[in-house]
Amino acid sequence: MDANYLLISLPKSTSTDKDSLKDWLQTHINGGSVDLFEYQLPGFKVGTLDSLVLQSEELGRIDQQLYGSIGKVQDIMASIHGEGDAKFVAKQKIDGKFVDQYLESFRWNTSRYRLDKPIEELINLISSEALNVDNDLRSSYANYNQARSNLVAAQRKQTGDLSVKSLHDIVRAEHFVLDSEHLQTVLLAVPKSVNDEFLNQYETLVEFVVPRSAQQIAQDSEYYLYSVTLFKKYVPAFLSKARDAKWIPRDFDYSEEVMAKMRNEYQEASKEEHTLKNDLLRLSKSAYSEIVSSWTHIKILRTFVESVLRYGLPPDFYSFLLRLPAKAISKSKRELIQRFGYLGGNAFAKDKKGNLVADAGLHEYASLVDQDYEPFVLYEISLS
């Protein structure tokens, strides 16, 4: 799905009537290759000029934050589903509509966000709900990543070499000195390249190693697995020197309980990963719908507030959504600015060829609102 749009709001003074304005947009923008949708901005409760300026700043910040959250949902879905953003977006629905249909037929949800509430209250309500969903999703994703890491570790223990793999199917009780007050058996994965050195040195590595206690339990292409018995007091020093000698200690205390736990480790890790993955998939889909809906409502609020600040009261302006190919967005913005750039007043001037260019000395208002100041209310939207 290729959902790329320009959202514009223009004062009614730009045209004698709405139909004439729509006709000009459909005829002149991108050579007439444009789909036009009219937005009816609700009649929000307007406060003071100072409050509108503060709300403009807040709405700009939340707009970007929620748009980032939408991208995060797409990234999560791509990582667990293995499909690109466009393919994921094309499948999602909001209030029973695909994303592009939802944007193109958008109507303010008056039952959820009542118009008798002040703008500031609407901002807080919409953003808090969306950000709570975003936080829940991020927490769920972190839990899933931990479960996936645990599964990878469990898989490695199933298939790795003797230095890392699980030993529950390899060792037996007779390989250990059990229930001794003074003696302890340790396990070592010894690289085959240093096997002779190991056999010559292990008895004298520290004091009180039981002579000839090394038992070869198993081997693979890289390692021998040995058990060695020594006095418990000297185990830490022995293991430290073993590491220096490139012998790899395997942390293993033999007990039936430990053996049973290791046997179940892979199955439990696989079950948990599967459960959390399914939970995350469900949450991602609902989060995408919720956050896109909230973001669209914030965008409409932002359009209204900016329009009042730009064009004044009473709120009397036209708002349109223009669907365009991605490659035509920049060209279409230039065409709109060329036609309606005069609305920027002293903020825009004409060069020697008669083209509109931004004045380096933008008037004071430009520093209070959008950093990328345009001569009229103009936003780019892309959810592809």
Can I get a quick summary?
With 384 residues, the protein is an alpha+beta fold. It has helices at residues 18-28, 49-81, 85-91, 99-104, 119-159, 195-201, 235-244, 256-311, 329-340, and strands spanning 4-11, 35-39, 93-94, 97-98, 183-191, 215-219, 223-231, 248-250, 317-323, 348-350, 356-358, 377-382. It contains nine helices and twelve strands.
Tell me what the structure shows:
The protein has 384 residues and is an alpha+beta fold. Among the domains are: 42-160 and 254-314, subunit c (vma5p) of the yeast v-atpase, domain 2 (Up-down Bundle), CATH 1.20.1460.10; 173-253, Alpha-Beta Plaits, CATH 3.30.70.100. It has helices spanning 18-28, 49-81, 85-91, 99-104, 119-159, 195-201, 235-244, 256-311, 329-340; strands spanning 4-11, 35-39, 93-94, 97-98, 183-191, 215-219, 223-231, 248-250, 317-323, 348-350, 356-358, 377-382. The strands form four sheets. It has a four-stranded antiparallel β-sheet with strand order 2-9-1-12, sandwiched between helices. Strands 6-7-5-8 form a four-stranded antiparallel β-sheet, covered by helices on one side. Helix 2 (49-81) runs antiparallel to helix 8 (256-311). The protein is elongated and about 105 Å long. Mean pLDDT is 88; it is low at 358-371.
Chart the SSEs and their pairings.
Layout: E1 4-11, H1 18-28, E2 35-39, H2 49-81, H3 85-91, E3 93-94, E4 97-98, H4 99-104, H5 119-159, E5 183-191, H6 195-201, E6 215-219, E7 223-231, H7 235-244, E8 248-250, H8 256-311, E9 317-323, H9 329-340, E10 348-350, E11 356-358, E12 377-382
Antiparallel strand pairs: 1-9, 1-12, 2-9, 3-4, 5-7, 5-8, 6-7, 10-11
